[in-house]
Design brief:
Radius of gyration: 16 Å
Number of domains: 1
CATH class: Mainly Alpha
Distance between the termini: 8 Å
Shape: globular
Structural class: mainly alpha
Number of helices: 9
Largest sheet: none
Order of helices and strands: HHHHHHHHH
Length: 152
């Protein structure tokens, strides 16, 4: 697969605007490891190879384990995620699949149980941001930075 074009070079003002939202999320006070799990899960759902590779590296740098990252797509069945993480992952999945889910009340209530109003809004901004990055990367075929040789 070949990259298409670089939207960040073509529309730097748009990139700066999206980066502003990402900077807000990064300063929100939410646990960075939790944010990386949410980013990684949304990227898995969206099939964004670039973002999956990036967020695996970033999560690992924050101390996340390979086992938890390997089990992330089956978090419902893996007892190694805390109730707060499970609520965040359910929220992430519901927002990422909003056209399908319409964000069910039980997912909302679960998230409200584990997050303050401000935290839930900030988590929502985080999910909005990663879904936006995913969509640009998938649409323009941004290739992952990998250590392995690329297959021609």
């Amino acid at each position: 697969m070949e990259s298409r074009l670089n939207p960040y070079e073509i529309a730097p003002e748009g990139y700066r605007a999206m980066s502003g939202l990402q900077q807000y999320v990064n300063r929100s006070g939410l646990d960075p490891r939790l944010l990386e799990l949410a980013k990684l899960r949304a990227s898995q759902i969206n099939g964004c190879a670039y973002c999956i590779a990036l967020h695996v590296r970033e999560a690992r740098a924050l101390g996340e384990t390979d086992e938890r990252m390997h089990l992330l797509s089956a978090w419902h069945e893996a007892p190694i995620f805390t109730p707060r993480e499970q609520a965040a992952l359910a929220w992430t999945e519901a927002l990422t699949r909003v056209a399908e889910t319409q964000v069910p009340n039980d997912v909302y209530e679960r998230a409200r149980h584990h997050f303050s109003d401000k935290e839930l809004v900030d988590l929502s901004f985080a999910v909005v941001a990663i879904n936006s990055w995913n969509r640009l990367s998938v649409a323009f075929r941004r290739l992952p930075d990998t250590e392995a040789p690329r297959v021609p």
